[in-house]
Please model this.
Amino acid sequence: MSTPPAPSPARFDLLDAARLVAILLMLQGHTLEAFVAPSAMDWTRLRWELWGQLRGLTAPLFLLISGAAAVLATRRGPDGQVPRALLGRRLRTALKVLAIGYLLVFPAAHLADLRWVSPAGWQAFLQVNILQLNAVALLGLTALLALTRSARTQGAWSLGLGLAILLAAPWVAILPWFAWLPEGLAAYLSYAHGSLFPIFPSAAFMFLGATLGAGLLESPGPERLGRFRLAVLGAGLTCLAFSLVAPHLPEPPLPPLEAYQAGWGPVFHRLGFAFLALGVLAALAQAWPGATRALAPLGRKSLAIYVVHLALIYGTPWTPGLMGPALHSLGGTQGVRLVPLVALATFAVVLAWDRLRNASSRIRALAHATAACALGYALLF
Model:
């Protein structure tokens, strides 16, 4: 979710274009999920089964790309250290993403109303979604970058941590974290109270992406895309092979939903297809580099696109969303027709805001100050 510096075509354009693909998959998934009636989702039909599979690989794909991009945007000094200024920027980015994630689901319109929030409301507020997970994983990755002295060492540690998180996920999922930790911390370790992306296994995707990024840094420029394509295809096939073996390995019994979210078989299945999707996108980037360069700038606005489309669909504590009475009320065809409208509205808002910010440094400062004052006023009054 972090925004890397302006990339060179050979190094960054593929990942930025792939990030745009992932955010569009999220957008259509959220739109259909919000507006289409559950009764219209016939899971016995191939199109809905394929849509469900697509929903499952979107988050791993996005987090893989985010991890790779974060490493590729890192420059080390002659001694192998990452400059403190860059580490500080990463820390601020992670905290900003974390704050946005919680603000989108703030449990009251005004600070004074927090005393009336029910326990169920606080529980919903503290659930971990992809923005919170992305922020925490970025903090871990930043710490790893600070502690290592080369991309190769960082890549090795990222690979080890990623695999350890994946393999530990089923065992972590069965522990009673809410009996041991406060709600806000336990939500990062358990699905029990509604978190969608706890650290185990979701953070692993970002660390594995960081391993890819480290490998790209070690690859010569002209060979980078070709090696990346072979690496992700090999990783995808390996993960899919393990997903077939995993059901025969000993792991703790999990409820059906948690088995899909944390069990080795389903997790490696989703991860394998996410790697294969990256391989397909790499092949397309090699075939049409011009299209990749054209899409990359929008991919760098992934955080804004994500936030705006959620605000448009679901609303915020201070603004209404499109969902309203149409929540889970449309047919499948109506929902599909709504997707491009939500996408167009999202990109219109993002590009208008970006144009305003880039008009001049004075206008950018004024726009940021206005947004901050508006948020402060909303919280206080």
The chain has 16 helices and no strands. The chain has one domain: 9-380. Residues 1-11 have pLDDT under 50 and may be disordered. Residues 9-35 form the longest helix (27 residues).
